[in-house]
Amino acid sequence: xxxxxxxxxxxxxxxxxxxxxxxxxxxxxxxxxxxxxxxxxxxxxxxxxxxxxxxxxxxxxxxxxxxxxxxxxxxxxxxxxxxxxxxxxxxxxxxxxxxxxxxxxxxxxxxxxxxxxxxxxxxxxxxxxxxxxxxxxxxxxxxxxxxxxxxxxxxxxxxxxxxxxxxxxxxxxxxxxxxxxxxxxxxxxxxxxxxxxxxxxxxxxxxxxxxxxxxxxxxxxxxxxxxxxxxxxxxxxxxxxxxxxxxxxxxxxxxxxxxxxxxxxxx
Length: 267
Ligand code: DGL
Hints:
- It contains eleven helices and ten strands.
- The protein has helices at about 15-25, 45-65, 75-85, 95-105, 120-125, 125-135, 145-150, 160-175, 190-200, 210-220, 245-255, and strands spanning about 5-10, 30-35, 70, 90-95, 110-115, 140-145, 180-185, 205, 235-240, 260.
- The strands form two sheets. It has a six-stranded parallel sheet, sandwiched between helices. A four-stranded parallel sheet has the order 6-5-7-8, sandwiched between helices.
- Strand 9 (about 235-240), helix 11 (about 245-255) and strand 10 (about 260) form a beta-alpha-beta unit.
- It is globular and about 50 Å long.
- D-glutamic acid binds near residues 10, 11, 12, 43 and 117.
């Protein structure tokens, strides 16, 4: 038994989509969430900066006495996972491998698309992981950086979002993909728009599902589940107070949560 909370972080609100899956899978666990809303986006930054920010984010979560960390950010997972695992003494989980496993299982025609931030696409991590599982796959990747501010703004169903999706995704539609990895945790917030742009024949993969399963298996195997009859208390922190945080909480988690402001530069 380990009653300490699980730490989850992202550059902003995108990690709330992963938090949702962790809550579904591990309802009795407590969560400490950090969204680095002052420094979003990470996806346009260099590997060194992404790793430096991620280390600060994890130090903050460790200061809240978490028992494990979920990197609810593909940009950090694809660029910095090995270095972060090495640097910290607690279990650290990324989202890329779980997403690759789901995609490789789902495809029927072996044509898989990946949409992600520029830094995730540049890392080649999804392609590597998918080819490791099935080297007969054709993986086509496309960076969609404007999806992040659109999701942070809460514009999931605006005309500008549909126009942006059409522009970004037309190349992938031509590749005859049957499976698309939402390789940025912000993108499930735009899921309807992305699905409508491709049509129903393309299966969207949200790596958060498998990530939550992998986390649960680890906690069970290592006897680290929270055992308490008290309801789980979740806490949310951000590095900049934005008006949209509680709105996106409602969209991603089904209810509003207040987030406390912290100074991430202190960590
Ligand atoms: N949500 C993050 C990801 O999964 C990062 C978005 C960004 O900060 O650019 O990649």
